[in-house]
Write a structure and sequence with these properties.
This protein is an alpha/beta fold. The chain is about 35% helix and about 25% strand.
Length: about 550
């Protein structure tokens, strides 16, 4: 097997020619079906429309939308033009949006008008009031000097913005031969997608990913699940994240398979779509699967068509994995580990691995990817079982952070190793175990504590649905352990009960000093828990407890 030299649009055109009538994209809840050939035709029209708006090779086109049908139209249109698609988190507010549009040098922004209770149109008018006064095509923004066009991905009309119909109509202004000449300039080494890191730690940075990066990673992911052209993946994870755009889309298009898409994660829509379209694969973070299993009408849906899928993004409780395999028929479910900077897959479990291996490890390295664990102090490779930083080297390593060579040099060393910032161990059988993030590591009085280890123990406690462990400041030890627990519905848990349970399973210094019961966790738009926000909340709650204790002692 060799690494592919394909491009996104090259694969689309290949299947549009070879299997023109095969469904590529389906939205079961709205009865929308696009075959490979129908979708390719729409992409061509939209791409020529973008050309008419002045989008040239290597220009940046932003997309700010949930998983609407034309999200992928914009992506493939950019690929055909050699433009970069820059994904914008659907949860962004004005400040975050301004930072990204400025940092990424966005030329054209494609967006929806509103998402949930947030008006994207109003936010953009706040940033670019010139939209209301300047003719379209002549935009000159004070705050966003590189921005030239705004495209509303709907038939609606908004002052200063093009809509989808108008962009498609402008395709007639571009000659087919000029469009074909533009396509011919694009190679697999060109940047296809730029994603901004989720911001769980630090300020977001633009991760540059090429066709070569993401298509080879997507293909390897599909191979781990034994995908064929007959597979039908239910996509309910966001496209603006690598989970959706690489592990989902790129795994499917490299196998000539099909996607059934949900605009947002909605449990009834997910279950209905699986049953109606006989989906064979389903992705999600553990909380998504917990929500699906816990839906009151879960047993009324026929999910027997399911075979495989991916559970990733956070620790996978063994019991959850077992229930997914049994009740959702996903006996071939796997996990994938990586980060945006590694396109994203670095390691993955395989369908032939045991359930325990798939639940408690992140599998083994991808083909053509080297993975090593390095001692942070010595720089030497760690021995079996010795914790260190997990790093990778290979085709999957990003092209760098956009306009930030200093930050790039901090994570990709002179030998080409991408440093993940995650702590891991490798067992004697070659399986990797993630033990936490380097910045998540708690140092209590000189003792290194890995949150993942404590979380794994607490997950086994009856009545615990989810748990996240963080370090909070302490005057004596420097840091102490705090656990944030989401109890199962109807469960009765107490702080003392959790501490007593932990004290029987782990060393005293690892037992949480504080236990907080919560309903949910702060998360990124892609569903990852923002531990830095939990640390902030933990500090606040501990300060309140100490103040009350202090006041009580004075009384």
């Amino acid at each position: 097997m060799e690494l592919s030299q394909d491009t996104l649009h090259g694969l689309l055109e290949k299947y549009a020619s070879e299997t023109p009538d095969k469904n590529f994209i389906t939205y079961a809840d709205r009865g929308l079906y696009w075959s490979y050939s129908q979708f390719n035709a729409r992409v061509d029209e939209f791409a020529r429309g973008l050309m008419a708006l002045g989008v040239e090779k290597d220009m940046k086109v932003g997309i700010w939308a949930n998983n609407i049908p034309d999200w992928l139209t914009v992506f493939f249109a950019c690929a055909k033009l050699g433009a970069w698609l820059v994904t914008v988190n659907t949860n962004y507010k004005v400040g975050e949006l301004e930072y990204l549009l400025t940092n990424a040098d966005i030329h054209t922004l494609c967006m929806i008008s509103q998402y949930r209770d947030a008006s994207y149109v109003d936010m953009l008018y706040e940033l670019v009031p010139e939209l209301k006064t300047m003719p379209r095509g002549e935009l000159m923004s004070t705050r966003l000097p590189k921005l030239r066009n705004v495209v509303l991905l709907s038939p609606d009309h908004k002052r200063g913005m093009y809509n989808t119909v108008e962009v498609l109509g402008r395709s007639r202004l571009v000659k087919v031969e000029d469009f074909e000449a533009r396509k011919a300039q694009t190679s697999c080494r060109d940047i296809a997608n730029m994603q901004y890191t989720s911001g769980t730690t630090g300020f977001p940075k633009g991760v540059m990913l090429s066709h070569f990066n993401i298509l080879n990673n997507g293909f390897a992911t599909g191979e781990c699940m034994k995908y064929t052209s007959d597979d039908r993946l239910l996509v309910c994870v966001p496209f603006f994240h690598c989970f959706g755009i690489v592990l989902a889309l790129c795994a499917i298009i490299t196998h000539g398979a099909s996607m059934v898409i949900c605009e947002d994660f909605d449990v009834p829509t997910v279950l209905y779509s699986i049953e109606r379209e006989k989906c064979t694969s389903l992705y999600g973070v553990p909380t998504m699967f917990v929500a699906e299993l816990g839906h009151p009408n879960f047993d009324k849906y026929d999910l027997s068509s399911l075979r495989t899928g991916i559970m990733a993004g956070s620790v996978c409780p063994i019991e959850t994995m077992r229930m997914v395999m049994e009740k959702m028929y996903m006996k071939d479910i796997i996990s994938v580990y990586g980060l945006t900077e590694s396109s994203p897959g670095m390691t993955a479990s395989r369908t032939e691995h045991s359930m325990e291996q798939r639940a408690t490890t992140v599998g083994t390295e991808f083909p053509f990817v080297e993975v090593k664990i390095f001692n942070q102090d010595t720089g030497e490779e760690c021995a079996v079982g010795e914790p260190g930083e997990i790093c990778c080297r290979g085709y999957n390593v990003m092209q760098g952070y956009y306009k930030n060579p200093e930050a790039t040099a901090q994570v990709i060393d002179k030998d080409g190793w991408l440093h993940s910032g995650d702590l891991a161990t490798k067992d004697k059988d070659g399986f990797y175990h993630i033990t936490g993030r380097i910045k998540d590591m708690i140092i209590r009085g000189g003792e290194n504590i890995y949150p993942r280890e404590i979380e794994n123990y607490i997950y086994q406690m009856e009545g615990v649905d989810m748990v996240e462990v963080v370090g909070v400041p302490d005057a004596h030890y420097g840091e102490i352990v705090a656990a944030f627990i989401i109890p199962k519905l109807g469960a009765t848990l107490s702080e003392d009960g959790v501490k007593e349970y932990c004290s029987k399973l782990m060393a005293k210094f690892k037992v949480p000093k504080y236990v907080f019961f919560v309903r949910d966790y702060p998360k990124t738009g892609s569903g990852k828990v923002q531990k830095f926000k939990l640390r902030e909340l933990g500090k606040q709650l501990v300060d309140e407890i100490l103040e009350k204790q202090k006041a009580a002692s004075k009384a």
